[in-house]
Design a protein that fits this description.
This protein is α+β, with helices and mostly antiparallel strands. It has helices at about 5-50, 70-75, 150-155, 190-210; strands at about 60, 85-90, 100-110, 115-120, 125-135, 160-165, 170, 180. The strands form two sheets. It has a six-stranded antiparallel sheet. A two-stranded parallel ribbon has the order 7-8. One of its GO terms (biological process) is electron transport chain.
Length: about 210
């Protein structure tokens, strides 16, 4: 073997060793950081869930198929179009008993795009009581649709209750019943998108309760 060939082999071996070493280092770093990152993500999610369902002590993910055709039919029958539900968790008390759900839902009819939110829904005594909503995505106009994230509008969903097949309604004439919220003045599109997303979440809870 010529000196030139020996040099090529030597360089190839060195490069291979460096590549393997780098791979091992990166793999080790990933292994070390993966668990803390996962724990941080779980803590962030639990904090968001706690915000919309403060009475819950624990949250347990529920198996949920976002493409379930029966659920899609339920949404259609309820008149809730352009709405999806991506995740559902069971809200539990200190004993582990179910007291409701936290649902992530979205509606595509926002003024600036998809309005996505998380909503806490209690299910005691056959009545669905909303504990609050938290926006995950609200691409609306500042000073207009963004008012949906102001307490004046958002906090209305902490006191809404629905019974049977009732859903949340918005009104421009002052709310008069437990399932109504006052619309954002001049922002019907945003109000409608938020209400539909919330109603999608309520429909998901009804859908799950029927299967129990």
């Amino acid at each position: 073997m010529s000196k030139k060939d020996k040099g090529v082999v030597h360089d190839t071996i060195i490069l291979t060793i460096i590549t393997l070493a780098a791979g091992l280092v990166l793999g080790g770093v990933h292994h070390i950081t993966a668990e803390p990152i996962q724990k941080q993500q779980e803590a962030t999610q639990k904090a968001a869930q706690k915000q919309v369902f403060p009475e819950a002590k624990n949250f347990k993910a529920v198996e949920w198929d976002a493409s379930n055709t029966d659920f899609a039919k339920a949404l259609e029958e309820a008149g809730i179009d352009q709405t999806t539900v991506s995740a559902v968790s069971e809200a539990q008390d200190a004993s582990g008993a179910k007291i409701g759900y936290v649902v992530t839902a979205a509606n595509k009819e926002g003024y600036g795009g998809d309005v996505e939110l998380m909503v806490g829904i209690g299910t005691a005594e056959g009545t669905k009581s909303l504990y609050g909503i938290s926006f995950l995505n609200l691409p609306e106009t500042a000073g207009m649709g963004m008012k949906a994230d102001e307490p004046t509008f958002r906090d209305q969903f902490k006191t809404v209750t629905v019974s049977g097949e009732e859903l949340v309604k918005y009104t421009k004439n002052g709310k008069q019943s437990a399932n109504e919220v006052d619309a954002i003045s001049g922002c019907t599109v945003t109000t409608n998108a938020v209400t539909k997303a919330v109603n999608g979440a309520i429909t998901a809870v009804s859908f799950l309760e029927e299967d129990e």
